[in-house]
């Protein structure tokens, strides 16, 4: 469909875009279904699992920032731009599937994680060998599949080749940064005793750049934006992305399981070295710092242990400081957005996306 | 460097190409080193591990078929084509790193596998948490990194955008087939009792298409080849790829560890449902079939167990039949190559690559 044919649609807001991203993903996955079915029927569970993972809601934040980055740079509304932006959801699916595997998480959005789902298929089938090993292998491969499909959706989106090739290095850098940030995250958990500074670096690369800044820039470069807008998007996107991740960190410790779809205190059990934890260690009493060392990352941490760590994080002032930081970063981002030379409707939606990213409860 | 400037180089054979693929990879990785170093110094071990994995020899078979597929289609010799072909080595590295993780293999080419290497770093550092878990996470992420770098090297190779975009769907399909084939392989090991037919499908998708047919076709489409040459490359590449994988299967059971860099009988311990195994079960006595069921896939299988299974595979006639099949498939491939409308020098080198692929001992 051409941009002209679509102009009557008025995708007024981010809710509408979410549906369109879902449709673009559904169309792409329907094509992949037939590719997989041509190879073997026994690939059906793979196609199904990817579809369930991708089409089961989600905030579509990264495609949102990419698409509105495009619109803000003067790109016309069109399904092609939505499809290109939707590829970031495949990247995110890959990251989450592999992340859940690395963290041995049992659930994702209130449902079994991919490795647990395939472990369940193995058990139900009474198959040979280790059910756990089968689940892990399936998760490695499904994550890989989503990762290679990222490019395929991007390049088959229908946007002009010139645009796609121009923005590609930004997409590449974004992915390298994501993998690097994830490695640093795992490394911090292993090395332990991380500083506030090191926690900040993980946050920046694993999440902040990847969630807001780079998607905005990919959208902008697709639309042919120059250096000034890219810098403006950084000035908006980097603090906002950091605020997004800090909100995530708070939810990982204090979130309501019925909203987050994750068990309470999951990040504490996994030993995530977040800024929240680093501040609690730095600002808390020596006794509290010892409690952190002792309890953080204990896979068997029970409700009482979670409550203890929550209390330590509260009374050290870390929670309050992180909440203040979220507010400060969000204000800084919104100020930068006011200054940015973007089209008015995009500014309005980006402002609302900033709300979604920082005030959410899931 | 332009094609013209290079025409005096006369890359006469596949050995020379191996060096050039190594150089292209080295240059690409040097660039990524600096990207990673800009993020954090602690990413150094990641960059080093990828470099060691990629620059430590290897047969460079897939880039070889891709490059000579290009030359056979009339593409001029140039560093750009070598760089584009070299991207397949990054894909292969990703597949091997993740494969070793899924198979819990301790070694690769006689050295620790990536997950074991990082497990060792964790132990040496006396870090927190599970050393095994850290090794696994690092291997997931390094494999992901190599996978995304596949595209980056492809698109930054310097070949004309038009060529790159034209061949991209073939590269995409190749990767989907690879992941699908790997899943089918894992599934066969789990479900067990696989038929000769099902073993053949795994072999085709996991390896045959991916190792020979698709690389040749990517090269051909990059050079602008038409349907006839793609079909001729299939007629050559598919049987050759199957022969390649059957040779691999034989080496996985009977290979000399000093040559393969893998412990003797590793495939038996991992429970790989190869054609060799399927034939032994089908053609052997009922008692031998029971021995296969009992011993195959036992992680603790000792030298005596390996010898027993080797003997079962021999006396069932499976080994002989597989060797005959390798010969038949290779002959079929070479006949197809004789018929194909490719340039003479490419035909000559492709013939030698076919030898390397099917008569190797490692």
Low-confidence stretches of chain A: 1-11
Biggest interface, residues from each chain: A-B, 61 and 61 residues
Order of helices and strands of chain A: HHHHHEEHHHHHHHHHHHH
Q: Which strand order does the major sheet of chain A show?
A: 1-2
Biggest sheet descriptor of chain A? 2 strands, antiparallel
Fourth-tier CATH superfamily name of chain A = Farnesyl Diphosphate Synthase
Alpha-carbon Rg of chain A, integer: 21 Å
List how many beta strands of chain A DSSP finds: 2
CATH A-level architecture of chain A: Orthogonal Bundle
Q: What name does the CATH topology of chain A carry?
A: Farnesyl Diphosphate Synthase
Q: Give the CATH class of chain A.
A: Mainly Alpha
Give the CA-CA distance, first to last residue of chain A.
Answer: 35 Å
Helical fraction of chain A: over 70%
Rounded mean pLDDT score of chain A: 92
The quaternary state of the protein chains shown equals homodimer
As for the number of domains of chain A, it is: 1
Features:
mainly alpha, EC 2.5.1.1 (chains A, B), disordered N terminus, Geranylgeranyl diphosphate synthase type I (chains A, B), homodimer, geranylgeranyl diphosphate synthase activity (chains A, B), two-stranded antiparallel ribbon, 362 residues, 2 strands, Farnesyl Diphosphate Synthase
């Amino acid at each position: 469909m051409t941009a002209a044919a679509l102009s009557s649609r008025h995708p007024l807001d981010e809710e509408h875009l979410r549906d369109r991203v879902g449709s673009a993903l559904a169309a792409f996955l329907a094509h992949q279904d037939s590719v997989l079915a041509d190879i073997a029927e026994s690939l059906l569970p793979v196609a199904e699992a990817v579809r369930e993972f991708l089409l089961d809601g989600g905030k579509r934040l990264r495609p949102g920032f990419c698409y509105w980055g495009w619109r803000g740079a003067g790109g016309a509304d069109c399904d092609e731009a939505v499809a290109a932006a939707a590829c970031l959801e495949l990247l995110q699916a890959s990251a989450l599937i592999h992340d859940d595997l690395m963290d041995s998480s049992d659930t994702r959005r209130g449902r079994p994680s991919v490795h647990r789902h395939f472990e369940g298929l193995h058990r139900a089938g009474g198959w040979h060998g280790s059910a756990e090993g089968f689940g892990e292998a399936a998760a490695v491969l499904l994550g890989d599949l989503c990762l290679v499909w990222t490019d395929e959706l991007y390049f088959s989106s229908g946007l002009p080749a010139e645009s796609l090739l121009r923005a590609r290095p930004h997409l590449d850098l974004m992915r390298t940064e994501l993998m690097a940030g994830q490695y640093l995250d795992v490394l911090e958990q292993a090395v332990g005793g991380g500083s506030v500074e090191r926690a900040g670096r993980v946050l920046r690369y694993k999440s902040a750049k990847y969630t807001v800044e780079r998607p905005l820039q990919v959208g902008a470069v697709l639309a042919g934006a120059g250096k000034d807008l890219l810098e403006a998007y950084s000035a908006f996107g980097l603090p906002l992305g950091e605020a997004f991740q800090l909100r995530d960190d708070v939810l990982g410790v204090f979130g309501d399981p019925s909203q987050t779809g994750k068990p309470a205190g999951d990040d504490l059990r996994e030993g995530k070295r977040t800024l929240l934890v680093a501040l609690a260690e730095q600002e808390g009493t020596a006794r509290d710092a010892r409690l952190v060392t002792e309890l953080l990352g204990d896979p068997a941490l029970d409700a009482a242990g979670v409550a203890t760590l929550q209390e330590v994080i509260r009374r050290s002032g870390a929670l309050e400081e992180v909440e203040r930081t979220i507010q400060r970063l969000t204000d800084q981002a919104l100020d930068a957005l006011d200054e940015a030379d973007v089209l008015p409707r995009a500014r309005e939606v980006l402002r609302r996306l900033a709300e979604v990213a920082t005030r959410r409860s899931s």
